[in-house]
Amino acid sequence: MSTYDMYFSKQNKNYMFSTLSTLILQETGYDIKNDPKYIELYRLYYPGIFDAIDTDELSSLNKHLINTIGSLILKNLKTIEPIHQVNDVASKPVKEFIKTASIKKIKNIYSIQREKESKNRFNFKIGLSESLPELPELPELTEIRYFVPKTITLLKEQNSLFSNDTIFIRFNGQENIAFHLKNKYTLGEDEYYTYECLTEDSIEYKGMVTIEILNYLLICPCTKKDIFKISKSKTINYEDTKYTCLQLKDNDFSLNQEIGLLNDKYEYLRSVFVKHAFNEYILIEKTDSKDMKDISYCLKMNQNISIQILI
Predict the structure, then answer these.
(1) Over the stretch 275-290, which tens digit does the pLDDT of each residue have?
(2) Are 169 and 211 in contact (CB under 8 A)?
(3) What secondary structure letter does DSSP report for 243?
């Protein structure tokens, strides 16, 4: 029997979950064996372990399984206070108190608001500091912030991200958080998928957050740039109507598509719609030249990714 067959056998799956449950129980006093949340988390992470390491030994795979999934469950359990336990706020570690106090409201992170040095909508950097609440005056900790990822909604595209019901988001180059498909909806001709976070992990950061959206194998589904440089813009007359013509090399914009206009810092300014498309030229509603002077780039608005967090 191959290593693949042994690892994915029902016997190994059940044995390793039983072993993991026993270890978690010994460590925390909590039995995950009948908890649907952790059963689902185990089921979703299990296949990715096999692809994560290069080995032919079942024992090495199972060890990596215990270390990876066990760490996720332990981290999650340690953020949840038992109902029967009464905690004196004064006895809490200062850092933990700040972490709890700072989670107050829902905020949406939008990929179109990313920093200029970002690679694309699947791998970007974004600042969150402006909308965060004030923290207590503790010099060594005032810059530390936390948020809890909840959902992610994005356009269904032809790439590997959508080949499995589970996707991952890697925060700050270290935290691989699993999201499971929750629902789908259609808007016009576009289909959008919403994924829900399986855990209550708190992400620590200091003003800036890096976000990588990965498929179930922890691989980025797309490395292509998705922001287009506007080479030229001018007013033209086409079929007795005046338009602003934009020259965009290697674009694939289509008729009636909404596009976002950005300045030279990649900051979103406003949206327009494609009235006509001819290879590397698109026509939009006539815009005064003075309003176009700050426009340098554009992108597809339907590809905007929304990540909902608690801060």
Answers:
(1) 999 999 999 999 888 8
(2) yes
(3) E
CATH 2.40.30.270 residue spans of the chain: 228-301
Q: Which residues contact 199 (CB under 8 A, 6 or more apart)?
A: 41, 72, 75, 76, 177, 178
195-220 b/e with 16+ CB inside 10 Å = b? bebbbbbbbebeeebbbbbbbbeeeb
CA distance 122 to 215: 10
> Where does the pLDDT of residue 66 fall: very low under 50, low under 70, confident under 90, or very high at 90 and above?
very high
Which pair of tokens denotes residue 64? 């990596």
Q: What is the CATH number of domain 228-301?
A: 2.40.30.270
104-146 per-position pLDDT tens digit: 688 999 999 999 999 999 999 999 865 444 444 434 434 678 8
**Signed CA dihedral, 5, 180, 99, 97: sign only:** negative
* Distance (Å, whole) CA 31 – CA 21: 6
Taking the C-alpha atoms of residue 15 and residue 34, their distance in angstroms, rounded to an integer, is: 15
Q: What is the pTM of this model?
A: 0.70
